[in-house]
Amino acid sequence: MTDTANKTLIKLDFPFSLNGQKVGELTMRRPKVEDLRQSRSQGGDDGLEQDLVLFGRMCGINPEELAQNLDMKDWNKLQRAYEAFLS
Q1: CA angle at residue 4 from 3 to 5, to 5 degrees?
Q2: What pTM was estimated for this model as a whole?
Protein backbone atom coordinates (compact mmCIF):
# COMPACT_ATOMS: atom_id res chain seq x y z
CA MET A 1 0.00 0.00 0.00
CA THR A 2 1.13 3.51 -0.79
CA ASP A 3 -0.29 6.10 1.59
CA THR A 4 -0.80 9.82 1.27
CA ALA A 5 -2.87 12.05 3.52
CA ASN A 6 -5.93 11.85 1.25
CA LYS A 7 -5.72 8.51 -0.55
CA THR A 8 -4.10 5.10 -0.53
CA LEU A 9 -3.02 3.03 -3.50
CA ILE A 10 -3.77 -0.64 -2.87
CA LYS A 11 -1.95 -3.17 -5.05
CA LEU A 12 -4.10 -6.25 -5.50
CA ASP A 13 -2.62 -9.71 -5.02
CA PHE A 14 -5.36 -11.10 -7.25
CA PRO A 15 -6.12 -8.68 -10.12
CA PHE A 16 -9.44 -9.01 -11.93
CA SER A 17 -10.98 -7.88 -15.19
CA LEU A 18 -13.62 -5.19 -15.30
CA ASN A 19 -15.17 -4.11 -18.60
CA GLY A 20 -12.28 -5.73 -20.46
CA GLN A 21 -9.65 -3.91 -18.40
CA LYS A 22 -7.28 -5.54 -15.92
CA VAL A 23 -7.63 -4.05 -12.44
CA GLY A 24 -4.40 -4.58 -10.53
CA GLU A 25 -4.72 -1.75 -8.04
CA LEU A 26 -7.40 0.36 -6.43
CA THR A 27 -7.08 3.90 -5.15
CA MET A 28 -9.06 4.48 -1.97
CA ARG A 29 -9.72 8.07 -0.95
CA ARG A 30 -10.39 9.27 2.57
CA PRO A 31 -13.96 8.62 3.70
CA LYS A 32 -16.48 11.41 4.06
CA VAL A 33 -19.51 11.46 6.35
CA GLU A 34 -21.71 11.20 3.23
CA ASP A 35 -20.02 7.90 2.33
CA LEU A 36 -21.02 6.46 5.69
CA ARG A 37 -24.54 7.83 5.41
CA GLN A 38 -24.99 6.33 1.94
CA SER A 39 -23.55 2.99 3.01
CA ARG A 40 -26.04 2.76 5.85
CA SER A 41 -28.89 3.87 3.62
CA GLN A 42 -28.10 1.56 0.69
CA GLY A 43 -26.61 -1.35 2.64
CA GLY A 44 -29.51 -1.83 5.00
CA ASP A 45 -28.80 -3.68 8.23
CA ASP A 46 -26.19 -5.99 6.71
CA GLY A 47 -22.67 -4.94 7.73
CA LEU A 48 -21.02 -6.54 4.70
CA GLU A 49 -23.39 -4.77 2.30
CA GLN A 50 -22.70 -1.48 4.09
CA ASP A 51 -18.95 -2.03 3.72
CA LEU A 52 -19.34 -2.88 0.03
CA VAL A 53 -21.18 0.40 -0.57
CA LEU A 54 -18.69 2.35 1.54
CA PHE A 55 -15.57 0.88 -0.06
CA GLY A 56 -17.12 1.08 -3.52
CA ARG A 57 -17.73 4.80 -3.06
CA MET A 58 -14.23 5.36 -1.69
CA CYS A 59 -12.59 3.42 -4.56
CA GLY A 60 -14.90 4.63 -7.33
CA ILE A 61 -16.11 1.16 -8.25
CA ASN A 62 -19.57 -0.38 -8.24
CA PRO A 63 -20.14 -2.30 -4.98
CA GLU A 64 -21.52 -5.29 -6.89
CA GLU A 65 -18.33 -5.42 -8.97
CA LEU A 66 -16.30 -5.54 -5.76
CA ALA A 67 -18.45 -8.35 -4.40
CA GLN A 68 -18.19 -10.43 -7.56
CA ASN A 69 -14.52 -9.90 -8.39
CA LEU A 70 -12.42 -9.01 -5.36
CA ASP A 71 -10.48 -11.78 -3.63
CA MET A 72 -10.85 -12.00 0.15
CA LYS A 73 -7.14 -11.31 0.68
CA ASP A 74 -7.54 -8.05 -1.25
CA TRP A 75 -10.79 -7.30 0.62
CA ASN A 76 -8.77 -7.45 3.84
CA LYS A 77 -6.37 -4.88 2.35
CA LEU A 78 -9.31 -2.53 1.73
CA GLN A 79 -10.45 -2.99 5.33
CA ARG A 80 -6.97 -2.20 6.66
CA ALA A 81 -6.69 0.89 4.43
CA TYR A 82 -10.07 2.14 5.68
CA GLU A 83 -9.07 1.58 9.31
CA ALA A 84 -5.79 3.42 8.73
CA PHE A 85 -7.71 6.50 7.57
CA LEU A 86 -9.60 6.52 10.86
CA SER A 87 -6.63 6.04 13.16
Answers
A1: 125
A2: 0.89
